[in-house]
Amino acid sequence: MPETAIVLSDVTVRFAEKTLAFDCAIKAGSAIAVVGPSGAGKSTLFNVIAGFQTPASGTVRLLGEDMAGRDPAERPVSIVFQDNNLFSHLTIADNVGLGIDPGLRLDAAARRTVSEALARVGLGGYEKRLPGSLSGGERQRVALARALVRRRPILLLDEPFAALDPAMRADMAALLADLVAETKATMLFITHQPEDIGRLADQVIYVTDGRIRFHEPASDFLARREPADIAKFLGHSVL
Amino acid sequence: MIFARAERRTLDIAGALALGGVLAFVGAATAVLLGHAGTGSGADAPLFDAYILRVARFTFLQATLSTLLSVALAIPVARALARQRAFFGRVWILRLSAVPLGLPALVAALGVIEIWGRQGVVNDLLRLAGLQNPVSVYGLTGILIAHVFFNLPLAVRFLVAALDRIPPEYWLSSANLGMGGGAVFRLIEWPVIRRVLPGIAGLVFMLCATSFTLVLTLGGGPAATTIEVAIYQALRFDFDPARAVLLAFLQIAVTALLLFVLSLFGRPQDEGVTAGRAIRRFDGRRRRLTDGFVILAFTLFTAAPLLATLVSGLAADFGRLALDPMLHRALLTSLAISFASASLSLAIALPVVLVPQLAESGASRPARRLMAVGLPAVGSLILLVPPVVVATGWFLMLRLFGETGRFAPAIVTVINALMALPFVVRVLEPAYRTHLARTARLALSLGITGRRRLMTIDWPALKKPFLTAFAFAMALSLGDLGAVAIFGAEGFVTLPWLLYSRMASYRTADAAGIALILGVLCLLLTLPSTAPERATERTGPDA
Question: In chain B, what residues touch A147 (CB-CB under 8 Å)?
């Protein structure tokens, strides 16, 4: 496996009222918290990596390969959103099974894999249920189970815990940490909660005004007393 | 409680008046029909002769085919439009698909004849291609074309709205998972379409089964006649009231059955999502060409009759038309009737909307609770007893008092008001509900009630839905031919009736000019309210 999982070089994204620019190199196996104010460009950063947003210039390399012209499904990336990760009219097993075959043609072995993944996230026996009958936390676990069966080396999570209550957040974070350790995936997650950084991240990317302002070890970031906006975000008293 | 004591009393009285008035008006017509049922030729002729059976069969046949065609064609068009979000002029195409709905059926029929008729573009092209037998726009073919012209865009709008309500994350997930076109249809689009399809198909079937004007102009003879048109012919040409009455009851039985079936399906919604993440479709990239072709074909089909109406209308001799006293009278009559009927429709709609909300808001006497159930039913009574049937009843009744033409304007006004009532209630009800939830308690606690509440609290907030409802009711009345046709007397000429008689006497240039005037009037009234929601594409990051 190459040393670096994600390299963005001189990537720019243009919108009507502003231009965003990203440069970064992320080592394989990192767990990175992406933080920053709303509208700063965190989701756009994910969209560029996942292939939902075509950059105006620059190159995106994932696992050493240039991603230019590659569709989202052709990239080594799985993505989990805050909500609506599951198709509400499909059973839990089918929702996970889509990770194995997007046309949902599943043989007995695939069905077994699905059941194992569901058991791994603590939802054994939920196969036949519909997403509507699950809690928000359980639905996010199903999304993780799907990411698990897809076996993509890069996992992006766009505010995966934002809709969950504090106890569920802690459970989910613990589960996620285990899964990432097992699969050795490179993980990036967007969060607005400083405690998620301590629980899950070894590095932090701080995005503001469409730029990556800091990319540093989580411990350094958590110890920051300046600039003021970060200190405030972390809950430190501003000097 | 959301109303003060005096307001409650006013509403009770208004509710009782609306309930009693509508029931009496429709009831009187039905009673007259019942009274006629035992008399006349019905006694010696069999109850359902071959003619009536043929008419009933044709009504169902054309409605079934129209529905199948409209809905089956709408699915690929809606999928293409939902998928190609950046298609050139997409917003305008969606707006175009609202146009037929606001157009009088007679004007649309003329447009369809211009394109598909003997001298139309389609037959010219077919002849160029070497075909000898042109498409005939009269009979079943023409009725189907006209019904698809009206209902395909309607079905497309409902389906696009349903597809746009799919959570945007689904498209991102499906792209991330690598679903192909077939899987997207099978796993995402079809489950949504399947849910709304029965409601859409039911609505289209209802509209086609009770379609009067299009069948009157494009159908012909006993081979292509629906129940409504047969009523008109029995009354106006054969003067056979017994047959008209029999047909009227057949029509009520059919609509009752249809309404019952429709109520099982639920009503389709035409609003898409407005908030949240922008919809981005990644499965559209590889289908741009085929989707573009489908969208283009749909646009041509919908726009061509409109353009033809415009072009041939502009070619009319407006100088002469402007001096035509018949046109002046018809225009004034139509405007007066549509204004009066829209006002009446809104006046009836207010208690229909408000009394149920009053009854919901707290303990009410049984009488009011009964009204709260009865008023909404009365609001859509005209769907059960169609305009032509009510007009027939009143025509037969007024005949006893001599000159029917004298009463015609009043009867047509009331019938048109009742026709618009379901739409008016549908516009006002949700608007009033949110408005009351927001302001009622505050206004009451501040003591702003009665007239002051109407002027300072209600009108400013509800101006837009009121005007929308009023404009829609006016357009509906302006374009209506059914009620007028039953009464159509020498002294009573509306714009659609004038247009119809000019078409019947082959004064095509005049007809084209009148059609343009009528079409523009109606579209000016309806288009502002049917504009689709603003495009939801966001331009900023972190959408």
Answer: none
Which chain B residues touch A90 with a CB distance below 8 Å? 187
> What is the interface size between A and B, counted as CB pairs within 8 Å?
88
The answer to whether A42 faces chain B, any CB pair under 8 Å, is: yes
- Which one of A51, A81, A98 has the shortest CB-CB distance to B177? A98
In this prediction the ipTM stands at: 0.82
- pLDDT recorded at residue B234: 87
pLDDT of B41 higher than 60 = no
Nearest Cβ partner of B183 from A17, A74, A102? A102
Beta strands in B219-336 (DSSP E): none
Q: What is residue B458's DSSP assignment?
A: I
In whole numbers, what is the pLDDT of chain A averaged over residues? 90
The length of chain A is 239
**pTM for the whole structure:** 0.83
Q: How far is CA B452 from CA B69, B199, B208, B457, in A?
A: 52, 41, 45, 8
Angle at which helices B105-116 and B140-164 cross, to 10°: 110
Q: B448-481 b/e with 16+ CB inside 10 Å = b?
A: bbeeebeeebbeebbeebbebbbbbbbbbbbbbb
* pLDDT tens, position by position, B471-530: 999 999 999 988 888 887 667 889 999 998 888 888 878 888 999 999 999 989 888 776
Non-local (6+) Cβ contacts of B451 within 8 A are: none
Residues of chain A with Cβ-Cβ distance to B539 below 8 Å are 15-17
Q: What is the pLDDT of residues B149-177, one digit of tens each?
A: 999 999 999 999 899 888 888 999 999 99
Parallel, antiparallel or unpaired: strands A57-62 and A203-208: unpaired
DSSP 8-state secondary structure symbol assigned to residue B44:
T
